[in-house]
Design brief:
- With 105 residues, this protein is mainly alpha-helical.
- It has one domain: Helix Hairpins.
- It is 77% helix and 0% strand.
- It has six helices and no strands.
- Helix 3 packs antiparallel against helix 4.
- The longest helix is centred in the middle third of the chain and has 21 residues.
- The protein is globular.
- The N and C termini lie far apart (33 Å).
């Protein structure tokens, strides 16, 4: 896998100190969690619509938007993307049903 997530995470951290007038990400941070969650919801809906439409390029484009806004949420909450990758790695090899059952314990 490429270093894109790491590089993007670093850039999102830098944007915390950027001018909201000139940085989209800084403006999201300034508006706070509710704004970030609203964007995340919009992007998730667009992925669903793209998935329903079945256009490969559109699915990729919208998924990139969703992942980007997920990374913004993580950065806003001082969570690095490696934490999510570590969680995915922890789940690797578990069945989805087993993983879900383990969360209930």
């Amino acid at each position: 896998m490429s270093d894109v997530l790491k590089e993007l995470s670093e850039l999102l951290e830098q944007r915390k100190n950027a001018d909201p007038e000139t940085s989209y990400v800084a403006s999201l941070y300034q508006e706070g969690t509710d704004k970030i969650l609203k964007k995340l919801g919009e992007e998730a809906t667009e992925v669903v619509i793209a998935g329903k439409g079945g256009d490969r390029k559109e699915i990729i484009h919208e998924t990139a938007d969703l992942w980007f806004h997920c990374l913004v949420l993580l950065a806003h909450n001082n969570i690095n993307s490696q934490s999510v990758l570590d969680e995915l790695e922890r789940r690797f090899g578990l069945s989805g049903l087993e993983e879900k059952a383990n969360r209930r314990k």
